[in-house]
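Researcher: Structure for this, please.
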Amino acid sequence: MSRLHRAVFENDIMLLPCLVKKEDVNKKDKFGNTALHLAVMLGRKKCVQLLLAHGAQVITKNNQGWTPLDEAISYGDRSTITSLYRKWKKQTKEMSLRVKSRTLKTLNSTGDFELELKWDFHTWIPFLKQILPTVVCRIMKKGTKIRLDTIIGGIILTGHYSYLFDLEGNADRRFIIVNHKKKRYEKINKRVPKDFDEKLIDEMMRNKIIRIEIIKNNVQFERAQRGFFRKGNKKETIGPYGCDIYSIQGLTVEEKTRKEHLSAEELSQNNTLADELNAGEPELIEKSVGDKPRKFSLAPPPATDITFENYLNSTSIPLLGREHKASSKSKSFKAEVAMTESFPLSLETLLSILEVVAPVGQIGKLRKVLKLKLPPGFPVKIDVPIVPSIGASVTFQDFRFSNTLTDSDFDIPLFYTEAFNISNTFQNMLEEMF
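Model: Predicted structure, token format:
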């Protein structure tokens, strides 16, 4: 246990400035809490500012899966939430610059191509079976430009969106969302309205904290078997590729929810499937920003009488901050993956491309599963858990290197009008429906 944790716990504001210069500010204690976790949960506002100024990470998770930003929302102090949110934006930008550097190397060493993948969503819930859509995504890559098209087809949900990425373009052209149905586009990196962040913080404070994790600690791959009397290794032909089929054992999806910071009225407005799919990520909450009343700070929770020694010697994590109103559910996920040795794109290149487009829809979850230690080859088809009640089978059904792509394929279509905060994802559409 670092002296930093003790100084925060005991609110030693005289010692802390010295310690943040000498010690690792992101070191965790036995409960997985960083000093910033403790500062937020205990309402140590000066400690929070000192730690943030010296590089404390805002989205580091403790053993329970919660980040300092989650704990700030639970505590309910708006100024602290604002500080952590702004630091999150800065840290995210720094991380994206590192991603950009890595991805540029990959893009420059890879030929131009088109890749199509199909998402077939499935569930055990009867009424959802009828309305879950099929989503076809097409990724186009030319030089350092990437275009991701999504076509959503279903009984109720339909849509056609393009996501344009230009890693070496001007700031206002690096990420553009195009809604073909409404003939509108949005430049994501363009200067946002002055009060946008404040409205976004309002939404954080009036929504449940939801974390959905794909638990992959004990995942194993086994060759799937065919036949009953004369068993053998299962093989399939998917498109032009001969594939070996593996079952994925030990894959679990877990959902945790906290709502202690919400009023009864806010709780009544939080029971939607779209909330689960958004999973509390700040970039996905942006869709619901609107003209709602300003959300003020909550009354602080009672001060704890737990000493640092009590905390240190506890066998289970003591309650710090607001009393939790939490729920959790998990589901073991039956999954298969079809591997081929003949796919012309490497998995490493695919992961690099997906890192750029990960904020779109459920691609981030796909990337997490693809980062498992897969069997040899390329995963032409793989099952991906979305939430405990919904999964998807993702098939890479078409790939070709291309020398016919032009710069106009990565431009905004003529006669489309600019909009702000357009409905741009599968999650947005689900929220509108539910």
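Researcher: Any notable elements?
Model: Confidence is low (pLDDT under 50) at residues 277-289, 422-434. The chain has two domains: 1-109, 112-286+325-434.
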